[in-house]
Amino acid sequence: MPAQTKEKNLEEDIESFLCSPEGGFFKCDDRHSLLYVEDGTYQMVGGGYMEHRDRALDAATLVNFIQTTQPKAWDRFERMCNSDSTAKFAKVFNDAVDRLGMVAVLKHGFKHRGIPFKVVFFKPESGLNESAADRYAKNVCRCIRQFHFAETGNQTIDMVLDVNGIPLVSIELKDQFTGQDVENAMRQWREDRDPRCRCLKFNTRMVAFFAVDLENVYMTTKLEGAKTFFLPFNQGSAGAGNDGGAGNP
Asked: pLDDT tens for residues 14-30?
């Protein structure tokens, strides 16, 4: 079996779990947006990240989430716009992230001319508040393979997990059967990924970068070229089912 096919199988296995009922993610690609229709159903439409790669954002999916969960705030915002409210919201979002940082915007949302927006809703502490539980259920979590992360070119990240059209977690996968392992994945992050890119820039989009092989997982929250420091994210393994090696319980 060709090496690239084996690595593709690893991607497929991870995607299969994440996009199962237990995993809770939607399967998607970077050429489509995912829009809420009704009664808990979603429709995939053209566009996605590839429509405006300079945004590093699937604006249609994010705007649809705002419309669905915060209709009054969206109506107020739309009345301020003479045209193309989606493009203008993408700019407002990017301005807020540049000003406050991605983590703060995720945790607290942001305001634009007095209008508050939340870009994600976290799980409520109890199910007593039905509206909070409903907003939480409308978060759109997607698994995207071969994600084009730069404004131009065909470089891709093996797998990206996004929330409501915002790319947040990226994963480079290696398979020992191809002659590569987690060290090669970490080297790829250090040497082949430009940390100045909006998608990869610290606290601007992605908040975690993973290097994964069949036995080990490492992660970092900040790409700094050759200085990038990875921490173990697993218990370590000396083979399937056995503890051993570098780990972080």
From this structure: 999 999 999 999 999 99
Predicted model pTM: 0.91
User: 141-189 pLDDT, tens per residue?
Assistant: 999 999 999 999 999 999 999 999 999 999 999 998 888 999 999 999 9
Alpha carbon distance 138, 121 (integer Å): 8
Alpha helix ranges (H) inside the chain: 3-18, 48-51, 59-69, 71-80, 85-100, 102-108, 130-137, 182-192
Please give the DSSP secondary-structure letter assigned to residue 226. B
Instruction: Please tell me the distance from the alpha carbon of residue 195 to that of residue 190, in angstroms, as a whole number.
Output: 9
CB 167 within 8 Å of CB 205: yes
- Is 202 inside any structural domain? no
Query: Dihedral, CA atoms, 59, 48, 70, 112, nearest 10 degrees?
Result: -10
Residue 175 resides in a domain: no
Q: What distance in Å separates the CA atoms of residue 12 and residue 159, rounded to the nearest whole number?
A: 10
Domain membership of residue 51 as a residue range: 31-137
The alpha carbon torsion through 172, 173, 178, 181 (nearest 10 deg) reads: 80
